[in-house]
Structure prediction request, 339 residues.
Amino acid sequence: MPNTTSTTRSCDGNILGSPLVLGSLRIQSRCVLAPLSGVSDLPFRLINRSLGCELAFAQMINARALMRSNWRTVAMLASSHLDRPLGVQLLGADTEAIVSAVRKLQDFDIDFIDINAACPARKVVKRGEGAYLLTMPRALEDLLRAAVRCSRMPVTVKIRTGWDTSTRNAREIARCARDAGVTAIFIHGRTRAQGYSGDVDYRAIREVKEEVDIPVIASGDGLSPQLIKKMFDETGCDGVAIARGALGNPWIFRRAAQFFSCGTVPPPPAPSEIAHVMRVHLAACSEQYGEEQGPVIFRKHFTWYTKGLPGGKALRQKAFSTRTMEEMARIIQEVCSVS
Ligand SMILES: Cc1cc2nc3c(=O)[nH]c(=O)nc-3n(C[C@H](O)[C@H](O)[C@H](O)COP(=O)(O)O)c2cc1C
Prediction:
């Protein structure tokens, strides 16, 4: 695991005082890393784990592509023994593809499989996948049942509060998921129509929590320790999945844990600590993708790490024209001197 901190964690961030139970998994931290397509590769996950994240998702996998053993898709499953517990999320609506993908995943070192019924992207819902499944509760139930039947590891589902404001059916969907035998429900507290903006519907999440007796892990605006606590308080959820709040900000896990245990929000990391973690992250990207691709892939993380830093805009402009590890390391060094 990248060594990003010498600070000993004083608490495990468990706001509820007992582990989050997913089948045979016992997760001490109730804050998990949400599925983040295009972002949550192995280096990103390890950085977050080194700062207090315990449960993480690999990048979303297209079930049909995995069925065909597409090499790019298989490469996205790259992991390590330090990268556990790990969930893999499948995108698909076709039972044959989902069952085939679930069967293939049984041979990988992962801990649970999640079925995506939440992705709002136009090209995805046009294929009847992702959030479109929310419009067909029975079909979704059948799909989930088929996945559960052929998996020896827990199967979960990620949903939204509904398709749009006039069809908010998360409670019905949650019942279908529970009846299909899923181990837990991940819910993004927005409708498909809302995408990633607009108010989070805490009430809808609470209703789902009250409806079913399986763990409910919520996401939506988990951007700060205070907002994460608000999600627990307002919904009674069993866990919070952190998404945008972790972009360039792996400290959110440690800071949330400290907030839960001490009641005060620790200060954000100093520029020198940010630069240190950036260096470790860059090195991990280089190890994973090679010296040429590593810095290119790291650019988006550079943007997130430097968001809000004085002089960040000029640094980002430089980073975006950078092609080598040495240049990127030099620009990271400049992060230390911002104040
Ligand atoms: C860049 C990005 C990629 C995402 N990829 C996925 C994904 O692959 N699967 C999924 O279920 N949700 C995905 N999400 C949604 C998040 O997991 C989360 O539910 C959502 O962003 C709400 O949480 P937030 O408001 O704290 O960001 C993604 C979100 C972002 C910002």
Notes: Residues 266 and 298 are 27 Å apart (CA to CA).
